[in-house]
């Protein structure tokens, strides 16, 4: 016996805010082209490093947009029994690679500048940095409205928060170079942005690998779930408990519940289903109820 659920509501939540993602994507993509061009022209490594970070965010926003489409697309093959919700996870993995690549490029360029006499056009840094700050603030305002409802939008929102930090770094670098005449400020802040991007990439990579490795969802302890299920009235044993994340905001569980003599399977199943939903926010729990006398053996793997 089991309990199954439709994830249409979760997909719909992301779809409702697709327009926010689309507008933010247009703004950030346009600014990326401008920043990259001025970074190459001005020779500012801070601008180039922020442009590299912005490139990763353009992909992240684009992937979030595509993921909302793919997730809502019906399966015509009959083989995708969980739908296509993991498109978001694979898109996040691509973003990790781009972020690490951008960070490595900036670090390489910074090391290559050692001992070289480099001229930096601070005027372009300040103008482009200020424009980037305005663009990021607008994007933040757009995405903030959907961040509380959709984890997909929330991820994009956090990406733009980091972009805002990068724009502030570019402005600070421009002011320091203009005030001191020392281009080391540009290189130093560029390296700081690169490290910031690399650290965020590693953190995101850990989350992606945890999902693909089917680890227990963050914030949910398997032992706690096991104990709460055992405490359900009518349950005397629990085995083959598995917990994992399908994609952001969609946690899944399976378990075998052994019931005491005289317990009604349908009642036990409903109690366990409500427990998983209300206490652990797991709406898709496939629960199998077995009589104590059935002696079902636990799986060997």
> Per the principal axes of the C-alpha atoms, what is the gross shape?
elongated
Tally the structural domains.
2
State mean pLDDT (0 to 100 scale): 79
The CATH topology annotation of the largest domain reads as Alpha-lytic protease prodomain-like
Q: Structural class of the secondary elements?
A: mainly alpha
Uncertain spans, ≥5 residues at pLDDT below 50? 1-13
**H-E order:** HHHHHHHHEEHE
The appropriate CATH architecture of the largest domain is: Up-down Bundle
What kind of sheet is the major sheet?
3 strands, mixed
What's the Cα radius of gyration? 25 Å
Q: Beta-strand level of the residues, as a percent range?
A: 5-15%
Give the proportion of residues in helices: 55-70%
Describe the structure.
The chain has nine helices and three strands; from the N terminus they run H-H-H-H-H-H-H-H-E-E-H-E. Helix 9 links the parallel strand 2 (250-259) and strand 3. With 301 residues, it is mainly alpha-helical. The protein has two domains: 8-212, Alpha-lytic protease prodomain-like (Up-down Bundle), CATH 1.20.1510; 222-294, Cation efflux protein, cytoplasmic domain (Alpha-Beta Plaits). Helix 4 packs antiparallel against helix 7. The longest helix has 30 residues, at 151-180.
């Amino acid at each position: 016996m089991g309990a199954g659920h439709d994830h249409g509501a979760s997909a719909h939540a992301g779809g409702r805010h697709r327009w926010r993602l689309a507008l933010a994507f247009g703004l950030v993509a346009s600014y990326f082209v401008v920043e990259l061009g001025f970074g190459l022209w001005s020779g500012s490594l801070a601008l180039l490093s922020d442009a590299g970070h912005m490139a990763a965010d353009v992909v992240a926003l684009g992937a979030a947009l595509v993921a909302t489409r793919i997730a809502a697309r019906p399966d015509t093959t009959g083989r995708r029994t969980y739908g296509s919700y993991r498109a978001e996870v694979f898109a996040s993995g691509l973003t990790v690679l781009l972020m690490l690549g951008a960070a490595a490029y900036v670090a390489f360029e910074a090391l290559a500048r050692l001992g070289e006499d480099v001229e930096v056009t601070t005027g372009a840094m300040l103008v482009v940095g200020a424009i980037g700050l305005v663009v990021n603030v607008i994007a933040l305002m757009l995405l903030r409205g959907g961040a509380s409802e959709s984890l997909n939008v929330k991820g994009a929102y956090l990406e733009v928060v980091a972009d805002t930090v990068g724009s502030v770094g570019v402005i600070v670098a421009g002011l320091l170079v203009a005030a001191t005449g020392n281009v080391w400020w540009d290189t130093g802040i560029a390296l700081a942005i690169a490290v910031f991007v690399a650290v965020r990439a590693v953190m995101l990579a850990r989350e992606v690998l945890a999902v693909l490795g089917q680890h227990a969802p963050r914030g949910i302890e398997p032992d706690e779930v096991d104990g709460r299920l055992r405490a359900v009235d009518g349950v005397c044993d629990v085995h083959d408990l598995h917990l994992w994340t399908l994609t952001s905001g969609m946690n899944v569980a399976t378990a075998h519940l052994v019931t005491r003599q005289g317990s009604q399977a349908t009642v036990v199943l409903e109690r366990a289903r409500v427990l998983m939903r209300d206490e652990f926010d797991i709406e898709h729990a496939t629960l199998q109820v077995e009589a104590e006398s059935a002696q079902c053996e636990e799986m060997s793997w």
